[in-house]
């Protein structure tokens, strides 16, 4: 898309991740994963960009492209209009279109509806029904919360991760910005946490503070800042798995249809690959929207399966006891210092899918 330099300029300054013990002492260090050089070992990629910045880049570029097409007086390209602050409340499928009702009462017919509304997609629920949507949501048994707090002295380019007994870990990321991002992960108390998502943010914060009380390391500081943070967000970590990503003239894209969970680090890849293939197939199949959706559904199956591959036992990152944490820290040290994961990977044969899948070319898209 010709966006690499724009994205590079917006990348955050994270230089890697330190695993620390309860006293803040270094247990292990992971540097930056170079793009296109094997799998992701640590947390930090060569192109580490905040989601909001990436969304803005794509948004601005789409408007620029639309304006360019208008200026050049070229045919096609369609209308491009962003509308914020309203949602779809009803979808009614017809043979050659979808009647859509919006939250402001407006009704309009569209040739195709693309639901790209994230893991908890309401479009998925409306188009496929409550049962299919619920079935698609595969919990991985972990709950997570995110929020920002003022930066502390000494916090900078390195993310810091602390494994705590009680099936929890805490992560901070600053990247030389005024605010530090806090991530809390927990693999217990599922019922209590699930129930509180229906309650107010204040109640959620209380339950999470209780769950992480006395965890160790900087837990007092991180929890102490909870009440004043204004960007709190907590949810159940899941993968979205569906047999088909379209029904009639409604199709799902990205996390709404195949969210792989934050644990894979592949959600953006899957979303962008999906968007590219959907656009390509629509361009290729002209007015035959059905054929385009069928092809999209088939072509992205393999990359989605690859993106959804998870570490075989996510539970190993959530030891319940002190001795468990000690063993995990030793293992993490061995991986970072002796690179034993890479040695093992070199010996393992690549899966057929990994070798077979190549991003398709769509000359019909007339990309520069
Ligand atoms: C903590 C964390 C770390 C992650 N790290 C990585 C990583 O390192 N690499 C990576 O590739 N991926 C990562 N991901 C995953 C990545 O963020 C997602 O896979 C990606 O954002 C999916 O894009 P999306 O556009 O499909 O959905 P989303 O980014 O969820 O966007 C959905 C949009 O739809 C809007 N919306 C929701 N409901 C409605 C509605 N009813 N009407 C209108 N709009 C609606 C939402 O406001 C949102 O703007 C991470 C995710 C998390 C939570």
From TrEMBL:
Domain FAD-binding: 77-298
GO MF terms held by the record: FAD binding; oxidoreductase activity
Matching InterPro entries: FAD-bd, FAD/NAD-bd_sf, FAD_aromatic-hydroxylase
Keywords for the protein's UniProt record, in alphabetical order: FAD, Flavoprotein, Oxidoreductase
Name the UniProt record assigns to this protein: FAD/NAD(P)-binding domain-containing protein
């Amino acid at each position: 898309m010709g966006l690499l330099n724009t994205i590079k300029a917006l990348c955050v300054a994270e230089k890697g991740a330190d695993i620390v013990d309860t006293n803040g002492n270094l247990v292990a260090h992971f540097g930056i994963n170079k793009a296109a050089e094997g799998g992701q070992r640590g947390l930090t990629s060569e192109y580490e960009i905040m989601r909001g910045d990436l969304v803005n880049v794509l948004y601005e570029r789409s408007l620029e492209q639309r304006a360019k097409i208008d200026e050049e007086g070229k045919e096609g390209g369609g209308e491009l209009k962003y509308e914020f602050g309203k949602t779809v409340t009803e979808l009614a499928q017809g043979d050659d279109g979808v009647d859509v009702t919006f939250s402001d009462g407006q009704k309009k017919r569209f040739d195709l509806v693309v639901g790209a509304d994230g893991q908890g997609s309401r479009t998925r629920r409306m188009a496929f029904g409550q049962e299919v949507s619920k079935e698609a949501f595969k919990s991985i048994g972990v709950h997570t919360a995110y929020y920002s707090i003022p930066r502390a002295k000494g916090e900078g380019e390195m993310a810091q991760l602390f494994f705590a007994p009680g099936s929890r870990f805490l992560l901070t990321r600053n990247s030389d910005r005024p605010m530090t991002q806090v991530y809390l992960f927990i693999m217990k108390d599922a019922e209590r946490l699930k129930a509180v998502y229906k309650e107010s943010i204040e109640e959620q914060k209380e339950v999470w503070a209780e769950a992480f009380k006395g965890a160790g390391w900087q837990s007092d500081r991180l929890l102490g800042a909870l009440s004043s943070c204004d960007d709190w967000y907590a949810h159940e970590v899941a993968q979205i798995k569906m047999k088909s990503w379209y029904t009639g003239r409604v199709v799902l894209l990205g996390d709404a249809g195949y969210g792989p969970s934050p644990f894979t680090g592949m959600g953006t890849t899957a979303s962008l690959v999906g968007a590219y293939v959907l656009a390509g197939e629509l361009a290729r199949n002209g007015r035959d929207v059905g054929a385009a959706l069928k092809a999209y559904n088939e072509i992205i199956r393999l990359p989605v399966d690859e993106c959804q591959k998870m570490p075989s036992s996510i539970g190993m990152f959530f030891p319940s006891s002190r001795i468990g944490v000690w063993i995990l820290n030793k293992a993490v040290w061995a991986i970072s210092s002796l690179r034993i994961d890479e040695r093992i990977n070199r010996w393992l044969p690549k899966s057929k899918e990994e070798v077979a899948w190549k991003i398709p070319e769509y000359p019909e898209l007339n990309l520069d």
